[in-house]
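Sequence in, structure out.
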Amino acid sequence: MTTVPRPLALLALAPLLAPLGACAPGGAEGASDTADDGPAELVVEPRTSGTSQLLQAVSPAGDGVVWVSGHGGTWGRSTDGGLSWTTGVVPGADSLQFRDVAGFDARRAVLLAAGTGPMSRLMRTDDGGATWTETFVMDHPDGFLDCMAFVDDRRGWAYGDAVDGGLYLLETRDGGAGWSRVPASALPEALESEGGFAASGDCVAPDGEGGVAVATGNGSRPRLLRGSGEAEWTALDLPLTAGPAAGATAVGFGADGFAWAVGGAIGEPIEGPRVALSSDGGASWAAASDPAIEGPLYGGAHISGVDPESLVVVGPGGIAWSPDGGGAWTAVHDSSHWAVAFGDDGRGWAVGPRGRITALRRVR
């Protein structure tokens, strides 16, 4: 059964519902070609993961290291730029859904499991996945973690659906070895039923200014929460489809003020924008042209080092990309993918059902 992402308030609608994910390139295939001598294309190439589980997140860690995570307690790692993969199951965790992963290097990574109450957990490895240490178990019976992001190998945040009328955000300052809750009083007031989508792991992202941005959904309007341990947290509305089981699923920040947010309606079809763009670092937003694939968008990623930024989005309808930062779109794959990420060399990966890993390469 294919899992559908969704916030805590919708848990009764389906046995598996909530998104996460991210990834990194490298390997012997060479760097992407960004010369100005012809139209750009996005090349897609299937990879063998070694697992049949739904993969929901991917994270680049530099030097050809890429981490992935998924259902059935599954984690995976490549050390050759995604050409080959090692996958495994965390002992005793085969009932958990690892909907996000953050990789720091070939040895260090953090996993986020999404689920109600104690099914939401955080784990860390310091030996390349040989052993995992549980560092947090959800401390609220109705809590539901959605995604996480690190601004460096020490400071990070994990976001979850609102509980008891307050936003839920965890913070770590030691690389995920320990977590503490950000007081709800320090955060903007939660909208009714506001939460996140544990679809790609990208509903939290570094904002390029030392803090993070959180994309929310399921409330009366999608919002972008933004702040850090030192700065006041603020909230800004996003021009995306709104309502129950709708809103923003992922957000990201590129160079020169370029930022993007994606989403849609996860449940019943709802007409409305699925991509929003910013040219001023997230201070203001406008709806973008509609991508060339159907259904909600679970994740997105920009390709670093390209001007204007190229943008790739994924969802149950496949993979679409825009070489001009969200102006025009082309569908490049029609199979379901849940998460996508690119490394600094312009190469990326998208992951999805049945252990699917698709390598992405921008060429001219």
